[in-house]
Amino acid sequence: MDNSDIAITLVLISAFMHATWNAVVRAGSSRFMTLAMVDGTALVICLLALPLVSVPSLEVWGYILVSVVLNTVYRLFLIKAYETGDFGQVYPVMRGVPPVLVALFSYFLLHEQLSLQALVGVLMICVGIISLTFVRRMTAQMFKPILMAVCAGVFIAAYTVVDAKGVRASETVLQYIIYLTVFQSIPIPLLAFSKERSALGHAIRGHWRVGLFGGVFYLASYGLVLFALSLDAVAKVSALRETSVIIGAIIAALFFHERFGWRRMVSAFVIVCGIILIKVST
User: Fold this and answer.
1) GO terms for biological process (predicted)?
2) Which of 28, 166, 230, 282 has the most C-beta neighbours closer than 10 Å?
3) What angle do CA 230, 232, 238 make, to 5 degrees?
């Protein structure tokens, strides 16, 4: 397998894990506390792994700090979106916005160019993802969660490009993964501890297994993406990662009793066609 094939395989595995840990957050009685437990689990794992890697250079520290800020804002929008909207509608919007923005950012900031086939594949994935939002008739109540999801998607695109530069400037991919996760996993648990200490303690006692499961999947999911970002074009990696919406739609149907239907099947078909175009363009 060449680097492109390895990157595609890693990202598709990551997509499954990403949809799963997002469903864990959505299923929690308190999205904020569940996300705090997920981040807390990732924080503990990476603190234990710190001795395995060297301290990053000043350049890499810059990328880490910017990414932490962007990730924290993204998480706050994520919580608001899941508190007010259905998983099956919020998740596709949040994951459909980044690929186009990442393609633009990576062109101007990283000077990466996609072939025509790959670009069409990225656009097909975006169209297929966003079309999942319209499996039901839009209402006024859906405006706020969709707006929150769009804002979250913008910050996803921003931190993806920052992390692509950071992981390529690091000594090793593992170094960037561990140090980034340590610092980006602090803000949400810290906010939860300072504002709702008793609620956090209750959540940990009653649902620590959920937090552990979600944390492991979250860490593994983004770790695989960072490895992929070091191997292939950022726009392609970003677009392929968002195929997690297909898995998300299945999870929404099975566990949240949200309809799948023929429209989601058509959307899934468009996304798969986009994946094939990206694959044959390599």
Assistant:
1) lipid A biosynthetic process; lipopolysaccharide biosynthetic process
2) 166
3) 95
